[in-house]
Design brief:
The chain has two helices and no strands. With 66 residues, the protein is mostly helical.
Length: 66
């Protein structure tokens, strides 16, 4: 799958992912249910993968714009 995205969109998406990451970590620390904590940890793993991809896109874009 290919997704075309502008630099401002990359920045905004990165901000959204950072906020959600912080929220998930907070929820993990405050949940009592082991099963729910595992679900949240899986979501964090997916989110961290997305953040990594966004970082690579952002880095590549800054290299090509120089």
């Amino acid at each position: 799958m290919l997704l075309e995205i502008t630099n401002p969109e990359v920045g905004f998406l990165s901000e959204l992912l950072d906020a959600k990451h912080k929220s998930l970590l907070h929820e993990i620390n405050h949940t009592d249910t082991h099963e729910f904590r595992d679900i949240l940890r899986q979501q964090v793993a997916v989110l961290e993968g997305l953040k990594s991809k966004i970082h690579r896109i952002s880095s590549a874009a800054s290299l090509t714009s120089d």
